[in-house]
Amino acid sequence: MAKISPAEFLRQVKQEVAKITWPTRQEAMQMSLFVIIFAAILAVFFLMVDGVSQALIAKILGV
């Protein structure tokens, strides 16, 4: 790998950062809300799976 100067590296970083399309505030809020809702749904799902598996194991072991 060829070595480049720090100045050249920073120039390349600046070029790459300019290519980024950042989300708008509204898009970021919508994506955050989606993640929170999806995480809550998954939490409830795994809570139910845990409860069912706990009941089955207790029944199998006769506890």
Question: Please, could you describe this protein's structure?
Answer:
By secondary structure, the chain is mainly alpha-helical. It is 79% helix and 0% strand. The chain is built from 2 helices and no strands. It is elongated and about 70 Å long. It starts with 5 loop residues before the first helix and ends with a helix. The model has no long low-confidence stretch (mean pLDDT 94).
In short:
With about 60 residues, the protein is mainly alpha-helical. The chain has helices at about 5-20, 25-60.
Enumerate the spans where pLDDT stays under 50 for 5 or more consecutive residues: none
Count of DSSP E strands? 0
Helix content: over 70%
Shape, per Cα inertia axes = elongated
Query: Number of DSSP helices?
Result: 2
Order of helices and strands: HH
**If you compute it from the alpha carbons, what radius of gyration comes out, rounded to the nearest whole angstrom?**
25 Å
SS strand fraction: under 5%
Mean pLDDT: 94
Describe this protein with a few key phrases:
about 60 residues; mainly alpha
SSE layout and pairings?
Blueprint: H1 6-18, H2 25-61
